[in-house]
Amino acid sequence: MGSFQDGRWMLKAASQLAEHYRSKWESSQPLCIWPPGYQQAIERWQRLYQRARGRGWNGAARHCLRQLLSANVQLAVAVNAGQERLLVEERRQQQTIPSERMVVDELRSLASEFEQVAYDRQSQELVAVTEPITLDEVDLGPFEIRLQLNGIDKLCYRIVALDNRSARGSSRVSHSHVQDETLCEGDGHHAIAVALEEGRLGDFFLLVRQILRTYNSASAYVYLSDWDNVTCTDCGDSVVPSESSGCDRCEETLCESCCCLCDHCDATLCNQCREGCLGCDDRFCTNCLSACADCEEPCCPECLFEGRCPDCHTSYEESHEIDEDEVAPTEEPESPSTDQNETPCPTDIQPLCLGEAAVPA
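Below the sequence we write its predicted structure tokens.
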């Protein structure tokens, strides 16, 4: 980065800025751009509308009327845009194209207003460093106002914090009015734009610095009263660090209202790291839950029976009892029992044959 104590870098930046303003002033753009064939279109739809209405074609008349309204809207937009271009051109005619000498004078005036002014050769940016800024007892540190000199259509700038003192809850916010290196200009937007357009670089840098020195709670990305606060991951509220805790699983920040405990191991959990048990509906961390062997739903150890949730375990037992009933053997009828001491009947010993008589014992 070249310091402006070396006149070469000042002349380099001045030459680049002067070329930008010269090319912008010399660029020729049409002042008024009308929609092609707008007059013929308006006359055509007006003629068709009158013909359709005269013949009682109500549907066609409504269509022609809508087309006529659309053509008039396009014409009004073009007229307004042309009016804006004419006003800009009128203001430009009253201005003087900033010369290289004028730009050098503007850059020299910056040296007495800022602690450091330099030219960044690599990024082609004009850099002015502010003093450390403190707002409502919040030390935000110094900032770099970086004006990009390689813009084609317009000059752009960004705000870079030299110290890492961004809001605790949002690393993207380095100042209450700066997010992602973009300044919320508020009421100063028009003044900043005109200063850049007219080449008044000193006024531009001073305007931006004044906004950095000012705090407006109505347009703050982060309130200064919440600057050191942390943001709860679950509800998004901003809380002081002493009233917050971290999730034991993902280490996200939680407020006291969103902080929950695992019903089994008492671990502190956020909403994303806890899950309900299928059996008892209590909330547990993922480490304390097991998947059911059948339905694979999460279940706590107290609700698991032989690796199954209550519903799957009941279904398993019922199906097991039905299977046992289906494979049970059928009972055979009992044969008449005989007493071993009982004397057998003769007829039981030898049946009677034809032609024989029974002889009593």
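Residues 58-93 form the longest helix (36 residues).
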